[in-house]
Amino acid sequence: MGSILSGAEAASLVRALPGVDAVGLEARAAGLSTRSVKTTSKAQVIDLAISMIDLTTLEGADTPGKVRSLAAKAMRPDGDAPATAAVCVYPSMVAAAKDALQGSEVKVASVATGFPAGQVPLDVRLADTESAVRAGADEIDMVINRGAFLAGDLERVYQEIRAVKAAAGDARLKVILETGELATYDAVRRASWLAMYAGADFIKTSTGKVGVNATLPVTLLMMQAVRDYRAATGVQVGVKPAGGIRNTKDAVKYLVTVNEVLGDDWLSNEWFRFGASSLLNDLLMQRQKLKTGHYSGPDYVTVD
C-alpha cells in the first residue's frame, strides 16, 4: 500500500476479508494457553511483562497527587525491576504526569476522543486529542465510533481515525476497538484492518470499561492481523490487550502467544503493551518470590 487509501477503498478491502474460523481460532488460543516457560526464563519473562505495562488511572476522582504517585511507581516499581512502558491518564492529567516523569523513559499516554464511549461530535474528539498532545502526551489511546462501525459505515470510521491521527501529530496512536462490543470475530478482524489502513500505530482490544475486555482468542486474532498486515504492506503495528489481565500466569500466556505468532520483532514495549495496572502488583510479588523463595506479605506492594 504505497499510497493513502480513500475511505471507499479501505472499506472495500475490509469487507472483502475472509471470515474467521472461530473453532480453529479458539482451539489455537487454548493450545497456546497451556504453554509455559522454563523456571530459568521466568524472571526474564516477568521483567519483560513489567516493561510492557501501561500503568493506568482513569477515574473521575483522579488528582495530580494520585498521578504523581502512579508515575513514581511506574519509574521505580521495585528495587531493580524495570520501569513500565507508560503512564496512561485523562487529558486533564497529562501535564501532571509529564512533570512527574521528567527525565525518565516512561511515556505519557492519554485516552482521548470522548473515552470510553466516544459518543461526542468529531470536532470535540479532535479537540480532546489536540489538548492532550499540547500538554505533552507521547501517545494517544483513541476509541473508535462503534455505533458507526456496527451500522456498517466503515468509511466514516476510517476517516475519523485518520482525522485523529492527524490531530495526534507525532504522538503514537493506539486505536481501541472495544472488541467486547463488536460481538463477532469477523467484526474484530475488519475493525483491526480498518484501523491499520487508517494509520494506527497500535490496535488495542478494550477500554477496560465494559463487561468483556481482552481475551486470548481476540488478541490472537489481532496478532494475526498485524502479522498479515506487515506482510502485505511492510508496516509494523503494535498490539495492546487491555482489561482483565490480572496475574502473572495470564501475562505469560499472552507473551507466549506473541512469541509463537509474531516472534521477536514484537517482543518489546515498542510493539506490545498490557493495559492492566493491577497486573503489576502480581508480577512484583512473583518476582520477589523468585528472588527470595517466598511470597511477601500483603503490604509489600502499593494499592493503586
Automatic annotation (TrEMBL):
It is an enzyme of class 4 (lyase). The keyword S-adenosyl-L-methionine does not apply. Transmembrane segments: none annotated. InterPro entries: Aldolase_TIM, DeoC, DeoC/FbaB/LacD_aldolase. Pathway: Carbohydrate degradation; 2-deoxy-D-ribose 1-phosphate degradation; D-glyceraldehyde 3-phosphate and acetaldehyde from 2-deoxy-alpha-D-ribose 1-phosphate: step 2/2. It catalyses: 2-deoxy-D-ribose 5-phosphate = D-glyceraldehyde 3-phosphate + acetaldehyde. One of its GO terms (biological process) is carbohydrate catabolic process. It holds the Pfam family DeoC. GO terms for cellular component: cytoplasm. Its EC number is 4.1.2.4. GO terms for molecular function: deoxyribose-phosphate aldolase activity. Keywords: Lyase, Schiff base. Belongs to the DeoC/FbaB aldolase family. DeoC type 2 subfamily. This is Deoxyribose-phosphate aldolase. The lineage of its organism: Bacteria, Bacillati, Actinomycetota, Actinomycetes, Glycomycetales.
